[in-house]
Amino acid sequence: MTPVQTGLPKVSVEQIVERIFALRQIARADQRLLMSAFLAQDSLSEKDHAQINRVFDALRKGLIRVVD
Question: Structure pTM?
């Protein structure tokens, strides 16, 4: 679980993904946190990569909705 390094509060990829799936929605702030983590791929574990891919797959399948 790598903390995400941004101007936003430090939170792990696992915490972000758990919140997204619990609410079945992704907010813009969640999206920014995940994108920041994904772009800093050298610091992501295989588990973090799998969790991010799980979110994108769920989005493509319509299981998670995007909210502002």
Answer: 0.77
pLDDT in tens, 7-39: 545 778 999 999 999 999 999 999 998 888 878
Indicate the number of domains in the chain: 1
In a domain, residue 48? The reply is: yes
The answer to whether residue 6 is domain-embedded is: no
Q: Are strands 25-27 and 65-67 parallel, antiparallel or unpaired?
A: parallel
Report yes or no on 4 lying in a domain.
no
Instruction: Say how far apart CA 25 and CA 19 lie, in whole Å.
Output: 8
Q: Rounded to an integer, what distance in angstroms lies between the CA atom of residue 53 and that of residue 17?
A: 10
